[in-house]
Structures are given as structure tokens and as C-alpha cells.
């Protein structure tokens, strides 16, 4: 994992605590999946649990990106008239499909 560059500001966003909680839960589920494999559990059960872990991580990533955009993009562009906000709002909206 890469460390943050020393000159970058540390940003604590609104959803960081919830993201960390979700990832800790996914980490616990992943440990369970490893045990399932070691205990020769049925592949269907393992695949279902892996799918749940994958979804949790994907949702955490999506929330992190949207949180970052909501905070940092707004901070960067500042207050804009409604007619100039459309590209920013569309950009933020499309990230939901990451």
C-alpha cells in the first residue's frame, strides 16, 4: 500500500468512519472465507461469501470516491452560478457507476 505524500493534506471526510467499519467487516468475512476453503466447504458457499466481500469492498471504494469528490471538488471550484454547475454535477453523478 502506498503512503501519502508528505506534502499532501490529510482529509477526513464525512464517511471515512463508515468506510473503515465496512472494510473491517469485509476483512472479517474474508478471514471466514479462508477458513471455509481450508475446511473444504462447498464451492457454492465459498463463492457466495467471496461475492459478499467483493461487494463490500466495491461499495467502500465507491463511497470513498464520492465523498472525496463531494468535499474536494466543491472546495476547488467554490461557489458557481447554477448554469456553470452542470458539468460538475454531472461528473459527480457519473461516479456512481464506477
Automatic annotation (TrEMBL):
GO terms for molecular function: DNA binding; metal ion binding. One of its GO terms (cellular component) is cytoplasm. One of its GO terms (biological process) is negative regulation of DNA-templated transcription. Homodimer. Belongs to the FrmR/RcnR family. InterPro entries: Metal_Tscrpt_repr, Metal_Tscrpt_repr_sf. The keyword Cytoplasm applies. It holds the Pfam family Trns_repr_metal. This is Copper-sensing transcriptional repressor CsoR. It is found in: Cytoplasm. Transmembrane segments: none annotated. Keywords: Cytoplasm, Metal-binding.
